[in-house]
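Students often ask why we bother encoding 3D structure as a string. The short answer is that it lets us treat folding as translation between two languages. Here is a chain of 341 residues written in the first language.
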Amino acid sequence: MVSDTLQLDYSQISPVLVKFLERYGFGPDTPVTLAGTAGSRRVYFRLAQGLRTFILLVSPSDDADFGRFLRITQFYRFMHFPVPMVYCIDDAAQQVLLEDLGDTRLYDRVHAPAGAPAAVSGGETTLALYRKVIHQLVDLQTRCFQWHRECPDISSRHFDEHDLLWETDYYATQYLRGHRGIDFAPAAQTELNAVFQELARRVNAQPKSIMHRDFQSQNLMIQFDGTVRVIDYQGSRLGSIYYDLASLLLDPYVMLSDSDIEELLRYYHATSLNPLAFDAMRHEFLLAAAQRIMQALGAYCFLSRVKGLPAFREHIEPGEQRLAWILKRVDWPALNSALPT
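And here it is in the second language, the structure alphabet:
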């Protein structure tokens, strides 16, 4: 049981995992430090003994994604897709020992201060890092997708109109009503619902492949050799090929420049061999982007206001800016009602 202060004593580690750790010299004196948390209440701890480290995942007892995470990890490892290795599992305790991918996320590299040493900045440009990530996304959507039926946790879950409408309802509930305090008149609410239904229909009609569903800068780890690794993928399923791309390029955590977005979007178009002309692909991308950023805004409001996680509050304004950016470019005037001025 993890305490409210997000601390864990070595004695609270599952005996199954302790037996594994003992083989590598870990014991009661091993320091256990917080490595990260997730909105799902999963908590990650780092165990270090000399130069050897592990990440301990502690999942709440009601986490429906625990088993799914392990099975999807197995599939991605089978496909040599760059997710962490799993070393030891205790299903009953819902604890897992994982490969330690370090502390450097794509987010940290992008936000490294100008003039930072190579150990911090990595010596690579933002665009070079994002090109690597786009290659991984294309690999997920092509090579891995060819084998997706080997993983029922992915192949049986479709991100369809029902899920898309759930997201925009989440946005309306948590952002429009909860955060903005907007009380729509019945006619305006009917109009907004019709727009959301049409958006869901259009995004659902887009080509589908494996989607991560939260493919953004805080879920992409940069290794010391520049390799990019992927985490927090238990939401993987089949959905629009543009949803993850929008999560990456229009990420409110990062706020890439217009020129970088354009260059990287063209890079994806060329790398993925997308059959659409570039302008047509951009339009489809913007539709999926509107969907994605509304979901993100709903999440920021819910996690900060309802769950009491104030760190998410600072991302609401960038999310608003990004949604306004999308609506300005999508060439669908009715969709502007989604973000009242």
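Translate back mentally: The mean pLDDT is 94. Keep this in mind for the problem set.
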